[in-house]
Amino acid sequence: MALKGSYPTLLLSFVLLGAWLALASGQSQSWNNDRFLRRHWDNPKTQATTNTTYCELQTSARGLAKKNNIFIHARIAVINNVCTTGGRPSIGNQRQSIRRFRLTVCKLNADRSTYTETPLTRRIVVFCRNKLSVRLVRIVRFRPSV
Question: Which domains does the chain have, with CATH numbers?
Answer without folding.
Answer: 30-140 (3.10.130.10)
